Amino acid sequence: MEIGVYTFADLGELTPEQRFAHLLDEADLADRVGLDVFGVGEHHRADYAVSAPAVALAAIASRTKRIRLTSAVTVLSSDDPVRVHQQFAELDLISAGRAEIMAGRGSFVESFPLFGHDLSQYDELFATKLRRLLQVRDDPAAHGVFPVPVQSPLPVWIAVGGNPESAARAGRLGLPMALAIIGGMPERFVPFADVYRQSGGATLSINSHGYVGDPDDFYPAYADVMTTIGRERGWPPTQRQDFDALRTRRGALLVGSVDEVVDKILFQHELFGHDRFLMQTSLGALPHEKVLESIERLGEVRERVNRTIG
Question: What's the whole-model pTM score?
Fold first, then answer.
């Protein structure tokens, strides 16, 4: 199983300049401890540093040797698919063939009015732009799109939240799918994996919040971020009992010791048979040194998981 980390580069109490310095440290460590993937998400809000993942990933490419570099996600609905391909083709060339695009519709919607798009066309925009992106990546030179990447074709993943139609679409297109599980019981998401595979899909990633270390270190930052988002979306504030329930074997959070996180990944592997697991650790104001400690321990998690599943 490929195991890696992804981040939205939350600012917390940092300046954007400080956060980018920390981002590079995180990616460098992830590469050194043997993780397989480093992902950077796209947001257009004051509380996140990265609005252009390809730029951040290009900087990371110059600091790393082997780790794969993905957006997590590219909000394709409000972007230009030709430009997206060009940006990630350049990243692929800079990184010697390590780039991926993780395309999604976006769980936040600030990019739609920002770039002049009608939110009522949320799904239609994604379907149209995904079709164009795939046309271009199948033969970029034939479409006059340059530069041509190292990888042929450039890998494109589809990011899915709670929409079975999105899972079916990823399967029909034969694209790898990243399934986000950030709340509830993992068993609830098995039907999405089933729909994906029944529709023709083969490669699945599970993406979740997590922290390899003392839960008391992670809880304050996690609760603050989820409560802030909850105020916007009508969720109740996150309480400690909610957090502890999500940490149990059948909860969505992968937080705890190396043993606990290994056990939970293996439990989810029994459910999903997934090929990749990505953990989002760097939430809100979680101290930088704690993020680095979690990434280092995740390297040990990776070794133990793969010794077990073979």
Answer: 0.97
